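Justification of computing resources. Each target in the renewal requires a structure prediction run like the one illustrated here; the chain below, 348 residues long, is used simply to show the kind of job we budget for.
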Amino acid sequence: MLKIFSFRPGRSTRRSWCVLALAALFLATPPVFSAEILSVQKIWDRGAHNAFTDLIRWHNRWWCTFREADAHVGGDGLIRILTSTDGRTWESAAGVTEPGIDLRDPKFSVMPDGRLMLNCGGSVYEGKTLKGKRSRVSFSKDGRQWTTPVPILPDGEWCWRVTWYDGVAYAAAYNSKGPSGQPGKAWTMTVYRSTDGLAWSLVKVLDVPDQPNETTLRFAPDGTMIALVRREAGDKLGWVGHAPPPYTQWTWQTSNHRFGGQNLLLLPDGRWIVGTRDYTGIKAGAKSGAHTIVAELERDGRLTPLVTLPSGGDTSYPGLVWYDGKLAVSYYSSHEGKTSIYFAEVKL
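Resulting C-alpha cells:
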C-alpha cells in the first residue's frame, strides 16, 4: 500500500532538497573534459621528412611507426619502427622497405594470434607523378623482424587503417579513380574484412560523396562500427558513420570539423577521443597554418577540441593509446622547421 505523508518542510529539509536537486542536475549532466599536456618530446628527426605516425602498446613496450623519406610526396619511403620501454628513450627497432616503392601511412594492429601487423600503402612515382598504388601488409612476432611486404586488395585500393574486432580484421579502402578505374570518376570508399590479413572480402561500398579518402574504423562495445571519413571536395567537412552488424546499413552525420589523418579511441569511461589535423589556422590566415588537436567526439558527430598540441604547418596523423590513466599521442609536425616525430602525454 502506498502511504502519502503530508508535512511542512523546515529550513533543514528545504536545504536538503536543494542539495539533492543540485546533485541530480550534476549527475544528469555529463562532465566536461579538461585536458592538460603533461609532456611533449621530439623522438625522431633523422630523415629528411618524417611523417604519418601510429602508436601502440604491445609486449610491455611502446612502438611507434612512421614514414621516413626525402619529401612529403615522391621517393622511396621507408617505414621506420621505434620502440621504448618508458616513452622517454627511443631506439630504432626496424626499417621496412621495398625497392622502387614508396611505403607510406603505416598503421599497427594486433592479430588474434598475438602477432603485430603493419598495414601501409605502396606507391609508384615518376618524380612526383603518381603512377600506381596498392596496399601492403607485413607481420612480426617481436617488432624487430618483419616479413616482406605483401600486396593486398586490387590495384588502386588504399587500405588506410586496419582494426580487429571479434577475430576479424576490418578496413576501409578508398580509390581515387572510382569504380571504373579511370581518373576523374567519383571516388569510392569500400569496407573490407579478413580473418588472416591477407585475403580480403567486400562488406559494403559506402555512400559517401565528395572524394572520401582516409578513414578510421572503430567498434563500440555493442559491436557497432564507427567510421571517421575525410572528404576532399564539397564543404570538406568530415563524416561520421554508424552501422550495426553486418555493417551494411549506415547512418551518417556531418561533423563541424574537416578531418586530416584522423584517429579515434574509446576511453574506459565510454567517451570517444579524436586526434586530427585542425585547419582553423589556415582559414584564419595564421602563419603556422594547420595544427594537431585532441578532441572529444560528441553524439551528433561534432568535435569539441580539448587541447592543441605543439604543432604547425605539415602536421597530424596521430597515434592514440590510453595507458596508465593518460592519453599517449604520437604525431608529426614541422613547427620547428623540419618535419619530425613527437610523443606527447595528455591528462584528461
